[in-house]
Write a structure and sequence with these properties.
One of its GO terms (biological process) is methylation. With 256 residues, the protein is α/β, with parallel strands linked by helices. It is 28% helix and 21% strand.
Length: 256
C-alpha cells in the first residue's frame, strides 16, 4: 500500500510553499500537479519521479476529477508514494476534500499539507490586507462557480451586506452578473474592487476600481485573477510593495 500527500503549493511564488510540502515532493515516486503550480517546485522531485499533469482551465480539463480520483487510488494500490500538488490550499476550492474522501473510502493512507491560498496571498502582494481594524473585521472566501442547482440570486444576496471583504475565486467570467446582483441587494456601487492576475508571480497585474466600473476595467487583465471587494482595497495606494520588489527579484513563471 502506498500513501498520498495532498499538498498545497501556494499561490505562485515558489518560496511560499511549506517545508513539509517540499519534503513530500522529495520523497514521492509520483507527482500529480495542477495548472497553477509553479513549475520551479517540480525541481525538488527526484530525477526518476513520474510527473503527471492534471491541469484544468475553464474550457479544458486534461483529466476529469473522477479520473484524478481513480488514478490516486490506482497508484496507491501499486505501492507508490504520491504527492497531489495543488495550487493554493487543497481544501480551499481545490477539491482536496473530494480526493480525501475517495482515499478514505479505499482505506488508503494520506496526509493533508495546507498551503497559502490565493485569497490571502494575492491581495497581500497587491498591498491589500483582507482584514484591517479600521476597514474590515470579516472576510469571506467565495467561488464564482456554483452548482446549477443553487439559486444564484440567493447565493449572492446574503453576501451583499454580509462580510466586509469578499475574496472571489474563479469569478472573472461572471463579474458582470456578480456586480449587478451585489448592487441589487444593497452593496454600495462605490465599493472599491481589485482584480489581481497571477498573484505573487512575476506576471502579477492589479487593476482597481469600484463595483460600478470594474467590469470595464477588467478588460485589462486575463484569467486567472482574484477578485477582492471591500474598503480594504483603498489601502493599496499606501502599502503596495510587491511591484517594487519584483523588479529586483526573479520569480519563475506560473505553469499554464
Amino acid at each position: 500500500m502506498g500513501k498520498v500527500y495532498l499538498v498545497g503549493a501556494g499561490p505562485g511564488d515558489p518560496d511560499l510553499i511549506t517545508i513539509k510540502g517540499i519534503k513530500a515532493i522529495k520523497q514521492s515516486n509520483v507527482i500529480m500537479y495542477d495548472r497553477l503550480v509553479n513549475k520551479a517546485l517540480l525541481e525538488y522531485a527526484s530525477e526518476d519521479t513520474k510527473l503527471i499533469y492534471c491541469g484544468k482551465s475553464p474550457d479544458n480539463h486534461s483529466l476529469k476529477q473522477e479520473e484524478i480520483n481513480a488514478l490516486l487510488v490506482t497508484l496507491s494500490l501499486e505501492g507508490q508514494t504520491v504527492t497531489r500538488l495543488k495550487g493554493g490550499d487543497p481544501f480551499i476550492f481545490g477539491r482536496g476534500g473530494e480526493e480525501a474522501e475517495t482515499l478514505k473510502s479505499h482505506d488508503i493512507p494520506f496526509e493533508v499539507v495546507p498551503g497559502i491560498t490565493a485569497g490571502v496571498a494575492a491581495p497581500a502582494y497587491a498591498g491589500i490586507p483582507v482584514t484591517h481594524r479600521d476597514y474590515s473585521s470579516s472576510v469571506a472566501f467565495v467561488t464564482g462557480v456554483i452548482k446549477d442547482s443553487v439559486d444564484e440570486d440567493e447565493y449572492w444576496k446574503h453576501l451583499a451586506l454580509g462580510p466586509e471583504t469578499l475574496c472571489i475565486y474563479m469569478g472573472v467570467k461572471k463579474l458582470p452578473e456578480i456586480k449587478n446582483i451585489l448592487i441589487k441587494h444593497g452593496r454600495n456601487p462605490n465599493t472599491p474592487v481589485a482584480l489581481i492576475h497571477c498573484g505573487t508571480s512575476n506576471q502579477q497585474i492589479t487593476v482597481t476600481g469600484t463595483l460600478k466600473d470594474i467590469v470595464d476595467r477588467a478588460r485589462e487583465i486575463q484569467n486567472p485573477a482574484m477578485i477582492v471587494i471591500g474598503e480594504v482595497v483603498k489601502l493599496r495606494e499606501k502599502i503596495n510593495w510587491f511591484e517594487e520588489v519584483a523588479q529586483d527579484k526573479h520569480i519563475p513563471e506560473l505553469m499554464h
